[in-house]
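Example record used in the benchmark description.
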Amino acid sequence: MVALGGGHGLHASLSALRRVTENLTAVVTVADDGGSSGRLRRELGVLPPGDLRMALAALCGDDEWGHTWSEVVQHRFRSEGELHGHAVGNLLIVALWELLGDSVAGLDWVGRLLGAHGRVLPMSSIPLDIMAEVAGVDPDRPDEITTVRGQVACAGTRGQVRSVSLIPPDPPASPQAVKAVAEADWVVFGPGSWFTSVLPHLKVPELAAGLIATPARRVVVLNLSPQRGETEGFAAHTYLEVLVEHAPRLTIDAVLADAASVDDVAALERAADKLGARLVLARVAVDDGSPRHDPARLAAAFADVFRGETGVSR
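Model output (structure tokens):
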């Protein structure tokens, strides 16, 4: 299995996928420019480590060693000085990058330390910037299109994101990521920030070509709710329509959605059909009403998808 994304969405899918496969690779966006990652990126010129760290934490072992190291790498310093806000795992990853001179080797070493159940790879070998075309940044001019640069700015925009691209426009893909996609049985898109974590993989030319050409089957996992700013006002089917716009040659085998989060099942079925996908509805959210995936339920839904079952509400 290869899972694509970044941040909390990828953490959710990895937490579930590790329950159903022993051969798991995460391919992670490298465009974060905020917080600890942004500071390290600007100061040292490295890949932003935060999303990579979160993916590694999701793959930590279930024993005391794994739980402890997961907490360590996720720990953030609280101080009045320069260390405030930095995550321990970010500093550890960057230290290994500097010592080894190889981003993938550094991540593999961290994975071994954590007892990770899988591998974490960057989608590109260089840090990237996201550029978005946004409508209605000025509420008085709802149809005016503005260009917004940077992941933080795109995710927090007051307008409606219409499309995203990358700077540079033709970044080099991680060779290991391309190889993993080519050798996969299944490729998983989402959940996560649609424009800043999921779609950027399709804007790296070599990786996008690999995702289209791979013999692997592909599943899209939809978000449980719109994200303020980035996807505000989205219906479930809108995510698929945007996916088609950004990758018209991509076909999908299955679309997995939370049964209680879909208002218009017919519209979602039509959007899935345009991608060549079957729709699988399942109960995958936690019970407290928050827009979070339950790892055990999502794992069970993944298992149904991989077995080819149609999926029913759980």
